[in-house]
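Q: Here's a chain of 430 amino acids. Please give me its 3D structure as tokens.
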Amino acid sequence: MVIRMMIISLIVAMFSILPAWLVPVSAFATTASGSTAIRSEPTYSGEWIDLLQSLESSPPPRRIQPPRSGANTITCGGKILTFAGYAEEIVDTASAVERYVVNDLWEFVPYQEENCEWGWKQRIADGSDVESPGPRLAFAMAGLPSSSNAFVLGGWDPQVPGTGGVILDDVSMLNSDSLTWSKPTDADGKAEGEPSIIPDGPTSRHVAVALSDDTICLHNHRCVDHVLLLRTSSDEQNKVRWHRQKTSGEAPSSRGLHCAASISSSSHGTNMCIFGGAAQNGVMSNEAFVLDTTTWKWTKIDCSGQTAPAPRAGACLCALDDNSVLLFGGAMPTEGGLLGLNDVWVLHVDDLKTGKGRWECLIEHQSVDSESSSAFPPGRNAATLTAIDARKVLPGDTFAESDKCYLLQGGWAPFRKTYNDVFVLRVASK
């Protein structure tokens, strides 16, 4: 109970209920003048597949136990891995709930006909590995695309109940081949063997995106005129370099609980897209920004006059194609408290130079009480959505080569229920 109140005190500052944001839960938005916004022509379709219910000839996948929110899921070295988070366990016959942070590591094992043991498998148990990063939530994690290395950056450790816990500045590296953890050292400016730390200080509720095979970009509430770049080198094993990269343009205002994904939007490489989040006063956003990593200039995406998702925090954002990202879920404030969402959107960045973009709603928010609720995951925030190759991971031959599929893991209906269902989102071009 004490930990729950600590969590509330930390997050409520970001999730304050403000009347200005009591918007209806709908795929429709309004223009500044109040008239109904215009929908763009659809280019994609979306469909949820419940792997626990829809596989008639195959056993269902194993689930993560106990359920958790606030974890991070990545693909690294050909593996789908989930680390840490905020676990929820029913502790007695009266359905009393205990919630606590963990530092276990899970892998989603692909389906094989000769092996019925597929789905989530725990690789490192909670508290069993002294080299693992400590228990945490509200952290960032990113895997390098053509490498077996992934990095865990910062977060929040509640520690002893009643203390308020500690915001973290540590850096840990996971080798996905051996599933072992290590503490990288700074290649510059540190004594030999001293672990690297995040240079701007302890941070949580931040995001991190891999920009290349050797560079990860971190963005947090302090990054109003810069971003932090973590760089690795194949010549210096287990060493990293931090760089405080100045930025220009119309940058996101100070925020946390936002989401981020890579997006090309140019011929010069991988850029970073940021959506939503909340300011310290709790006001939530539905703004989107793209950082050009050649010029290091921010561009606010202009979707005026278009239907757009409601302001939210704790959503999921994934790369979709060269000029688009996929948005799922998050939480928004209502008169009855925080509402977990399950709508799915695509943001098209049509012209990065002018900042022109448009939103496309693939799946509107569905109440869990609706007749079609079984076809949709319940609304949630603090979940993960991860791109997968469905034809290599899932049973059956129902997925086309052109389908883009995403594995949903965890999340919660805030302070009510935590999920460990297993849904896959299939996105197809029209």
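Q: Can you summarize the key feature?
A: Confidence is low (pLDDT under 50) at residues 1-36.
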